[in-house]
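Anyone? Bumping this.
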Amino acid sequence: MVRLTHLLLASLLALASSVLADNIKLQQVDRKISLNSQFVRITETVKVKNVGNQVVSEVILCESLGGDAVLSSYKVVETSSKNVLTVSSATVAGAPAEAACHSVNLAKPLPAGETVGLTVTAVLAKAQIPYPAELGQHETQLMLYNGNVYVLSPYSVSSQTTEVILPTSTVKSYTDEKPVSKSDNKIKYGKYDLIKPFTEKRLSVHFENNKPFKHILTYVKEIEVSHWGNIYVEEKYEIKNAGAKHTGSFSRLKYAHMNLKANSFRDLKAILPRSAHSLYYVDLIGNISTSNVRKAPTSTVMDLELRYPLLGGWKVDFTIGYSVPLKGFLTSAKSGQRRLTMDLSSPLEDVFIEDMVVRVVLPEGATNIKANLPYDMEKSFDIKYTYLDTTGRPVLVLHKQNVAAPEHAAKFSVDYDFNTVHILREPLLLVGVFFALFVAVIAYNRMEFTITRDDKWEAARSKEVLATYMEQIQALLEDEATILLGLARATNQVREASEVDTAQREKTTVEKRLKDLEEKVKPLLAAVESRSVRVGSQVRDVLDKARLLQSRYFKQLSDRIDLVKKGVALNEISRKLAPAQDALNAAKRELEGTIMTVFGAY
Amino acid sequence: SCRISVLNSAILLQGYGLTSEALRRMTELAITSPVSPSLYPTLATVLLGSGLCMTGSFFLYEVTKTKSNRALRSELILAFISAVLLGFGTLFLLLWVGVYV
């Protein structure tokens, strides 16, 4: 009677949502429950028949979850076309408390009288209960699985079979619901005909399972992108052995000698991208050296050993890090958006992650950040300050719970706008800092720090002013030397009578320029004399010597012109002018020496 | 080789069942650093070396010229060139040792 009321209620509700409980029948359900690991993997092949007279576009499928069990992954695929169908969780009135129901949208609406085949893949975590809950070292682990003998369904099932696959053939007990048969490590329940909707019959299997129960309590993955050519990935783990808890003592000797490790484990395997480099495996203490890395054709395989073996209930934490180059991960689309594609879940094999956080740190100046995810995750934003940052880098934070490693291994991508100009923020910051240093030096040099202006300071000041004038006079003398050098060159180039005119013109220009220099020197000389008579007379000496040298140059030029006009041969000219030339060079060297001694102190 | 790697990643994506994604991949360009990473050591050394030389000449100018003979313009030009060379040199030094900023 109660069942009938439930049915009526269900059908009323279903009417409102266009899914009638009695217009669909499941013709054949073949179910495989695999208990061969820490997860419970259920695969169902369902043949759905539309026995009503209306088109059906939604089908409700349920799983039974008992106790702490968590449905980590639930996928429905159309058997013939392999199309993945969209699934959303639904509540069905009349369903037992432990049923988790999903509403599946069919790709094509099912006409009346037609059948469609669906394949359901469900992964349950924490569904195997350790029984006994505590073990000593090296005792074999026994697990208890509580499910349902019949498929929980809001529709009646015409025919169904269930196969339970166990890790070993050791089974302590299993539910005896005829027809049932056990062979080796498989228990076959079936075939059951004409089962009413939501028929409950407890399926309980108590079996041996020494597979490692690797539970990662918290997993934080941080991906930092740098457009200068590198992507850093750092993953922090806290891992626990979620099998039967260890009680009693732990003997390291016994552990090393005995072959049966029961439910303990120490090894982990991580599959990383092929181009990963600069790997590290550390924890708070420091580097963990028990690891191996090798390159496979399409990946890098990292074999890790934890610091100590984990027996039931024990936990440990560690950090893995690596870098990958940009190639293969960072691309730019035609629209100008940048796209980062990376693995979303953990690279470790066969683990169950209770809390997963993925942080994507994008370079400063990235805007308009969007994520394309293979499954639902919570998104939020954060800011991270690291090397050479001014405003901080935007961080996209993705959060998900109850992730099963093999099923959730997929790639995700993040799109963002990044103007390449922003890549210059870092060098410009450095340039600015260095420039500020130099400006500080310039400012310091222009500041006067003496407290009292006494005689010593006055003397220093006047010496400085004198030095200014001397420097300027020295600069003028250098100019003069350059001009005379030009004149000497012009002199040597006079070889024929025709070149005499050019030489004369050269001479007049040189005379004019030397006269300009004289004008400039006069006020400077006066200033120097007013400050110090001694130094003034020294400078006057130098200037006189310079004038004498000038007249030597001019004489040399006129002698040469005369000889050329007379038509003397070139080597004759050189020979005749040689002694005068030597005297000129000696005078020049003497002048330079004097300039050094007089002006050197300033 | 850039095209081949894009093609490889497209084929890999097809393995994941994202066919339209794979097709789109083939029309996308890989992003590379503005400066080829193999140039980082050379650039770092050259820029830092010349930056230190310019810094040296800046400080020489500061200590040799007398107060009234200094020109703010030439000081600032020397300082600016040294700062630019030192700044970029430090950046490439950081990139060379693996601190990808």
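Late reply, but here is one note on the structure posted above: Strands of chain B lie at 29-30.
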